[in-house]
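Let us work through a complete example step by step.
Step 1: write down the sequence.
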Amino acid sequence: MSRRKLAKHSNYKCRVCNQSLIGEEQLKVNQIVPKRLGGDECYDNLELLHQSCQLQHQVLLEKYGEGKELPKVNAFFNNNQVEPNSQEGYKLMKEAFKKFRYQQV
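Step 2: predict the structure and record it as tokens.
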């Protein structure tokens, strides 16, 4: 897995804070569809985020997903009749992320 390729795919911007990925802050690889929902480590399911943004994202994912096992997210996929680990699943999750209320630091 190439971090450079992931950064380029997002135009070198963090999806959460919309700031440049080039700088001092540590970066983390984030799975769009988490492993616990069947997500794998293919490039289409990965993104690069600032470490602080990735932590914030995980907290909100568990909050909106109603717990560590993300039952509400599972129901979301079932209701939309979409396989989580698919191109359509990744797209659906990215759309859902737009509703997350991230705190801008």
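Step 3: interpret the result. Residues 3-97 form one domain.
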